[in-house]
């Protein structure tokens, strides 16, 4: 906490950052965390999938790299694995919502909905979107976000950024058509306000992190 600043009267804001692979979610999360902290807010961070920390996330990775036979071919199987990874973090999320002013999450339920709908060539009103909502929110009891930020970037720019990472891209990341359809679903989810209010950000330009952090805290 910064010296001399009055701590904001905020409790348990769940803020989610969504977007394509390579959209800049990690960079936005780090900058927003610093901006929140400059305003005197306590911030906890989470990111999904929790590769290396969750058996379900590691199974996701295995499937997306062709190491689990035909599991990756099943949209519902993959959706369940992603959801189980978040369910494993449910208690930690709830504790942090009690102990911190802002809980900032890199990918959440909407990510599952967007990618699986895109795989099925469905839109934001598709059957799989509602199926995932019922699974993760109603059955698994995951907390609903207070605000969802969609970091929108051109698909080719996101792909170029993803290619520069020092790791092997998975089958979702390498599928340009899937990424384009996923971007369209994300736009639809934001347009209809799926799960919670959305704010769309231009991920190809500079962000005013101070203004954005102030807006998010003022919403409380």
Note the beta-strand portion.
Answer: 5-15%
Share of helix, binned: 40-55%
Order of strands across the widest beta sheet? 2-3-1-4-5
Shape: globular
**What's the architecture in CATH terms?**
3-Layer(aba) Sandwich
For the record, what CATH class applies? Alpha Beta
Distance between the termini: 19 Å
Query: Would you tell me the structural class of the helices and strands?
Result: alpha/beta
Order of helices and strands: EHEHHHEHHEHHHEH
Kindly report the name of the CATH homologous superfamily.
P-loop containing nucleotide triphosphate hydrolases
Radius of gyration: 17 Å
- Examine the coordinates and then state which fold CATH places here, giving the name of the CATH topology: Rossmann fold
Number of domains: 1
Mean pLDDT: 88
Taking the sheet with the most strands, its summary is: 5 strands, parallel
- Work out the oligomeric state of the chains in this entry: single chain
Q: What's the helix count?
A: 10
Low-confidence stretches: 1-10
Total strands: the figure is: 5
Organism: Kibdelosporangium phytohabitans
Catalytic activity: dTMP + ATP = dTDP + ADP
Enzyme class: transferase
Family: Belongs to the thymidylate kinase family.
């Amino acid at each position: 906490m910064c010296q001399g600043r009055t701590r904001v009267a905020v409790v348990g804001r769940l803020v989610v950052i969504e977007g394509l692979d390579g959209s800049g979610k990690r960079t936005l999360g780090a900058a927003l965390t610093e901006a929140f902290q400059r305003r005197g807010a306590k911030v906890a961070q989470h990111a999904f999938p929790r590769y290396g920390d969750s058996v379900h996330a590691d199974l996701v990775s295995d499937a997306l790299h062709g190491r689990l036979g035909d599991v990756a071919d099943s949209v519902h199987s993959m959706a369940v694995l992603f959801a189980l990874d978040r369910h494993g973090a449910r208690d930690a999320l709830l504790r942090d919502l009690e102990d911190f002013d802002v809980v900032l999450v890199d990918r959440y339920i909407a990510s599952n909905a967007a990618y699986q709908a895109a795989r099925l060539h469905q839109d934001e009103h598709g059957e799989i979107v509602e199926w995932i909502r019922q699974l993760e929110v109603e059955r698994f009891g995951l907390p609903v976000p207070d605000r969802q930020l969609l970091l929108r970037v051109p698909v080719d720019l996101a792909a170029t950024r993803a290619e520069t990472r020092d790791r092997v891209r998975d089958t979702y990341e390498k599928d340009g058509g899937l990424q384009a359809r996923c971007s369209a679903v994300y736009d639809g989810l934001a347009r209809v306000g799926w799960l919670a209010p959305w704010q769309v950000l231009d991920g190809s330009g500079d962000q005013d992190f101070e203004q954005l952090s102030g807006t998010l805290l003022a919403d409380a």
